[in-house]
Amino acid sequence: MAKGGKGLKGKKITLSVAKNCIKITFDGRKRLDLSKMGITTFPKCILRLNDIDELDLSRNMIRKIPDSISRFQNLRWLDLHSNYIDKLPESIGQMTALLYLNVSNNKLTTNGLPMELNQLKNIRTVNLGLNHLDSVPTTLGALKELHEVGLHDNLLSTIPNSISKLPKLKKLNTKRNPFPKGEEPDTFLDSIKRLENLYLVEAKDLCTSCLKKCQQARDKLNKIKTVPMVTPRKPIFSSLVSPNSMAKESQEDWRMHSTSP
């Protein structure tokens, strides 16, 4: 990987080029896909397309994200993975419609993550994997709608309790971090797994017919769980970018050839 992308001349993105890269998703949303285009600087011309719903700038050589990115007030999906970004702008906290944020495989440190991230109250998925984080930002503990968090391939030695208290968290990837031997967050991961078995009502509050249906559904689920697996287990983080353990040694190759998340 070139150091910080210095000395590289990137492709110039014009407004006309950007417009031609807008696609309509299956659910009718506007997605601007500028991935794998050799871009070295954030193309300011795309700010004129601030009505888009999704923006993909992944697998480029971008080093800085400007404060003006907050003009994308409708943006629900932002993919910046596999660039050279070492800091996110404070203005990202103003993008309150965001549901998905992927900044994996960059050069982010804990100090490069602004406190304003705690304003993303609707966000469901955050991928911070393959960076240089030595601690988990406390801001994540304020994001009560989080379902999935990627923290793999960083420099973490512990996971704070604020993460374990997130009410809707279902998936957490902490693989390949230097946790002290014997102190990996197994207990924490178990607490997330147990969320799948929580009952939201008590038996005494159900009528006989409803209680019977719930018990039958529970028994059926338990039978399924006891059936031996005959196919490879599905990766726990199928919707998060999670390259293999050799990714740090071959990030540039992964950047150019990995499939989209």
Overview of the molecule:
Helix content is about 15%, strand content about 10%. By secondary structure, the protein is an alpha/beta fold. Strands 1-2-3-4-5-6-7-8 form an 8-stranded mixed sheet. The two termini are about 20 Å apart.
Number of distinct helices: 5
**Which ranges are low-confidence, i.e. pLDDT below 50, for 5 or more consecutive residues?**
1-5, 194-202, 232-239
**What structural category do the secondary elements indicate?**
alpha/beta
Order of adjacent strands in the largest pleated sheet: 1-2-3-4-5-6-7-8
Order of helices and strands: HEEEEEEEHEHHH
The 3D shape can be described as globular
**Share of residues in helices:** 10-25%
The share of residues in extended strands comes to 5-15%
C-alpha Rg, in Å?
Answer: 21 Å
Please count the beta strands (DSSP E, at least 2 residues each): 8
Largest sheet: 8 strands, mixed
Q: How far apart are the first and last residues' alpha carbons, in Å?
A: 21 Å
TL;DR of this structure?
The protein is built from 5 helices and 8 strands; from the N terminus they run αβββββββαβααα. Helices cover 17% and strands 10% of the residues. β7, α2 and β8 form a beta-alpha-beta unit.
